[in-house]
Amino acid sequence: xxxxxxxxxxxxxxxxxxxxxxxxxxxxxxxxxxxxxxxxxxxxxxxxxxxxxxxxxxxxxxxxxxxxxxxxxxxxxxxxxxxxxxxxxxxxxxxxxxxxxxxxxxxxxxxxxxxxxxxxxxxxxxxxxxxxxxxxxxxxxxxxxxxxxxxxxxxxxxxxxxxxxxxxxxxxxxxxxxxxxxxxxxxxxxxxxxxxxxxxxxxxxxxxxxxxxxxxxxxxxxxxxxxxxxxxxxxxxxxxxxxxxxxxxxxxxxxxxxxxxxxxxxxxxxxxxxxxxxxxxxxxxxxxxxxxxxxxxxxxxxxxxxxxxx
Amino acid sequence: xxxxxxxxxxxxxxxxxxxxxxxxxxxxxxxxxxxxxxxxxxxxxxxxxxxxxxxxxxxxxxxxxxxxxxxxxxxxxxxxxxxxxxxxxxxxxxxxxxxxxxxxxxxxxxxxxxxxxxxxxxxxxxxxxxxxxxxxxxxxxxxxxxxxxxxxxxxxxxxxxxxxxxxxxxxxxxxxxxxxxxxxxxxxxxxxxxxxxxxxxxxxxxxxxxxxxxxxxxxxxxxxxxxxxxxxxxxxxxxxxxxxxxxxxxxxxxxxxxxxxxxxxxxxxxxxxxxxxxxxxxxxxxxxxxxxxxxxxxxxxxxxxxxxxx
Lengths: 310, 310
Prior knowledge:
The structure is a homodimer. Chain A is α/β, with parallel strands linked by helices. Chain A has 2 domains: about 5-120 and about 295-310, ATPase, nucleotide binding domain (Nucleotidyltransferase, domain 5, 2-Layer Sandwich); about 130-290, 2-Layer Sandwich (Nucleotidyltransferase, domain 5), CATH 3.30.420.40. In chain A, about 35% of the residues lie in helices and about 20% in strands. Chain A has helices at about 40-60, 95-105, 115-125, 190-200, 210-220, 220-245, 260-275, 295-310, and strands at about 5-10, 15-20, 25-35, 65-70, 80-85, 95, 110, 135-140, 140-150, 150, 250-255, 285-290. In chain A, strands 3-2-1-4-7 form a 5-stranded mixed beta sheet, with helices on both faces. Chain A has a 5-stranded mixed beta sheet with strand order 10-9-8-11-12, with helices on one face. In chain A, strand 8 (about 135-140) and strand 9 (about 140-150) form a beta hairpin. In chain A, helix 1 (about 40-60) runs parallel beside helix 2, helix 3 packs across helix 8 and helix 5 (about 210-220) crosses helix 6. The longest helix of chain A is centred in the last third of the chain and has 25 residues, at about 220-245. The interface between A and B is large, with 47 and 47 residues.
């Protein structure tokens, strides 16, 4: 009997990971290569597809590739293109799905990495059976995927779900997008580094990692603890505002910052309830994602295929 | 041949309007009565249903009632109940759809007035054929209906789409909901009255109508003109933030304040584009609603039926 598999690809600014995932969310094989090794997108796709074909060959003749799901910054589901991704070297609009289809001979579907992870949570994680939820990734920036009535929200142009670039504090911190006060300038690894730098009076350019702030906070450092409290307060406000749009039953938090556990979740939940409109109070859960950090990207990308091609 | 009709009811704090609407959006007959004439919700429903039966009787034996659509503040689509409506005298949770079903013997569907108007725009107005749009009512407060992929967003609890209660300015103006800085404290008839009072140094309790501020602005009064500019700037920011959630192709503005035309639309559009994330710039329209103010409530309520019962 043939084993149906989806190719899963996650393109990051530094590394591109790839693998083969079945309909039950089992990752059969995987690998990674540096995104910047290839001079352009076509070269990267060609290199990744050679690797994927090799993985398929090793699995034997029963491996049946039925599609390729791709997660990438600024990936547009409708067009299959990456549009003006600030963290990638490729300029303008890049027809990524087309390149994968040409190389692999199967349908390729693209979306941004946070949307893909939201689908992964829905198909293979704790959001199974949930119709309305919000998935938030707290990494270098803040990404999000919004699910309404069992479907990912893509919007009219395929670019919906950018909670990280909602303006939380008008005229607030400068953001990489060129505007000011975006949620991700407060609620992300970068955000907490800025907050800690502000509280300690040091330069935000200092190479302090969010993990260092966490360790300091664990050892009782007041400014480090306060950094987590403030981050949670801002995140709680941002999430409470989000609820007023799509009223999710659950909000999943994912990514490096969530490793801080209650140090982040406790102030977030408190601020969230305090900032919620009355009709939403005490009925919306904030939970850590159930996806394993190292698997989420592949499971998410593969979900694009398993959600649409059966 | 029978003429299929939907009963349409819009319950406001002051008046309740009702009518009979066909599938083409033609209002066959209508009337209204003071909401506060009845001591409780059951009494109001009974009085309204007697009036509706009378309208049906006058239309003759061919009139075929197939359902009742109801728009009301804090109306919950899933439960058919009004939940803690601040502008109505009824306390707690009121099973409004059930009352209508008992009195009329047909299916009754309820949602909040802004959601209903969004459906009206989609079935009978300028949003025909649009899959993703936002509908915003600028009245005493600010209401909204969000359409994603051709369906109204109800959320997990039936209470989604409360743009008016997104916190635009943290620790900003006090809101009737008990929190601070909500969009509707800036972008509504009440909001512009507060803004004008702040600019002129008068008390916001003074009985100045938004229409008076409009007339003053038209005659060249600087503070009145500035009130519209500021309102537009806040509204543009609030709408730009909304786009980052569901990426609508079009935003429709409805209600009293929109009568100010370009005086409101020009600063709103300018601020909107300035505050949009780059990927959304120059592709989203802000338009006045095509629904006539006096018809919108009935067309919207009836749309609940025509969208689901065919």
